[in-house]
């Protein structure tokens, strides 16, 4: 009965109810979106590096981690790769040959890490292909090909289709010379990476190393979702106790630092926004109740018990906040989904940001549980904020209340 | 140290009567004239830069293909420094601290610090014969000598940074008097000039070599051969760590 | 007259005024806190990175960045170091000579980076000595060296051992020496830990035959905000071919990261403003609805609608202004408090900070322009919300209003 009354009250003053619903809805949507922006920001930062080269997990032989020598390759890589093929959490992997050597041109030479990859696998594992500014990723017609960073090309005075000489040592210490054509140039967020990394086809270096099968120094793994990282890492570590399985945090601690600091600020800012929300709702509710003092006074004067008036107000608030909450989730969810698809171009906000691709576009996203959590928080907050004025209202003497205009 | 390889590249062997040869033959002969199973030589290297000049004198023992030992005999600061190359290992002996230090493999790839000779010039053997296609581009007179002018284009798979090398080889004696190194855009990067032709150790060849980079004014590196003995008897045991310390300049 | 009326109205219904003003006040406080935390975090990040590595400014030979060789070292002109140290805003100046070498022990040789430092000045700046895990730190004119613990492991050396150093000195001369290992540092970044060797500046200058030469003069500042001014002033004292560069040029990735973070921070701030706007708007709407009868009566009694609107507008401005001032009154001390007492982080977050040797705190900023900006934005929002009552009054029909 009370409920029906509450319901009628809500719709009786459409304007008032609408204001409250809209306040709650937009506030919640704002909070959800803010959270999504921060989470997107955190992910994008980590993803830049993971996408560029790191992957979520990397596997090496322990000897290689101590000493990056060509002879410290993984002895039975096939077993690892077979297992990776079966794991559902793995999106893609790339088994790389890593050689420390020099890149030379007629004008100068520079120390580089020559990375022998299977172009198809590498393409699925990292986003480097999307960072190409010219050419293609080892898909050209030349017999021996290389893809290098634009910065390195500048340092060596080379360009697309130029010849680049790569030198490195094979397992017996003999110096190997490799003449390759530059078929692609890339530019990432890291100048250091651009200067020091040269990609070649794994089969080309395997041939020059005089090996029958590729020598694998590093297996980089990209997961479908970073949340599966701990479980996947544990699975691999236990399956291959003689190999070193590490996550990106261990390989690049500076990155881990940045991502945790982003995380901690996420919580702070969303908390602040929620605070703002609660204040807004409280004030609105306060005003709403104050506006109804006269009406409530009459209700009590004609005999409605205080307790019931109180519950009625509570029910109204619940209803309003519920509707507002649902609406908020919808609006917020839609906004997040859209921007998640199209991305927010941050360079519009900051002058001087060069177009680096994935670095400057933000993809907001929010894990499902956050939606629920935030919505519940708002609904509870709305109700708590209505409590005080409701309480005050029912404490009034009906005679006084009626006289308020 | 690597300069010795240049010496080998440039040493003349037996002079064959200069019948008209095809380009590759000419190159091969000029390359062969530099080779020997073993050698002991004395040379100076002078590095000239706009701000400073450095001159070193050294004695080099070589036993093809695996062993080289270089002893620096001047200036006083570096006197007694020894570099030993044994197969793929390189060691340095530093007299000022009386210690031997093994040079890590990665340093091998960098070529000799400071000079205008790069790894390409110094370490590669027989590259000019095997790694290039040769074409006779005419005859020119250089320093009073009739020279074959040969255009060398690197083969696609060759680990050579140049786009093209022009080389002047004398008709009589197959001596390399000049080489011009071009990048892939046909821009001249550096020039090698041989002069001071003398008879040393039984062979006649340019004893003064200057490497002149094209884009660095006031800079050049000069290699001068003072003496050389071809195919002396050297035992491989000579090339040992203990011997490094025992050598007196 | 209008103003007097408005003022009286404002204080007539204290509760109502308080509620609206309070909503504006809290909005200002929250906006201040959020922006303060954001700006504080960037300043903290820059501060940490500059302390650990590059300093805020460096004086280098202008060709040094492209060609990091000893040939691009320089002898600081007489008096330059003193001029720099005495410059207002500069808290420390430390000279460095950086180069490369091979370091060998028994038959293991490694390529390393050599840093010649003034131990006292450097330590005051980078607090390097806190990484010491074995042995002791360098002293002035020290003839020993200290190295990263990772490098020591690779070379198989420990404190007390000797290593051979071999490199190319100034003008191509050979640099060779035997040095004693006096201490080991467990450095936070693996690349550094595996390749860093530090020695006293004078010793490096001696071994590398580079007397009096440095590759950089590193400078730390009292107030990072003054960097641009100090840089320009410095440029006047620094003769060619030397140049002054700042951390942004030395660490472009950090600069870019901060720009991205700031951009998303502005998005967050915008969202906050939106939430605030609706909160204030809702409050104002309710307030207007509550005063409907009052407006109706006034209008019926003869007050022209335009006057009513004007009074209402002035009231709103006053209330918002009070709210904004109150917000500043509360927000500024709060922010200043957090600046002095940054929030301590804990758990994984703290651990991540500590691995990089940075104190795990959430830092706040107290830039005066930030306070003003936030208060102003909220004030403007509030005034905009105040437009609603104007529309309401205009569309109001006195007869219906009175009956409410």
UniProtKB/TrEMBL annotation, chain A:
Any Pfam family: MacB_PCD
Signal peptide: none
Keywords of this entry: Cell membrane, Membrane, Transmembrane, Transmembrane helix
Residues that span the membrane, as ranges: 20-42, 265-289, 309-339, 369-391
All copies of domain MacB-like periplasmic core, residue ranges: 19-237
GO biological process, one term: lipoprotein localization to outer membrane
Tree of life domain: Bacteria
Alphabetized InterPro entries for the sequence: ABC3_permease_C, Lipoprotein-release_system, MacB_PCD
Subcellular location: Cell membrane
Domain ABC3 transporter permease C-terminal positions: 268-398
Membrane topology: Multi-pass membrane protein
Keyword Transmembrane helix set for record: yes
A GO cellular component annotation in the UniProt record: plasma membrane protein complex
Family: Belongs to the ABC-4 integral membrane protein family. LolC/E subfamily.
Protein name in UniProt: ABC transporter permease
Species in which this protein is naturally found: Caldithrix abyssi
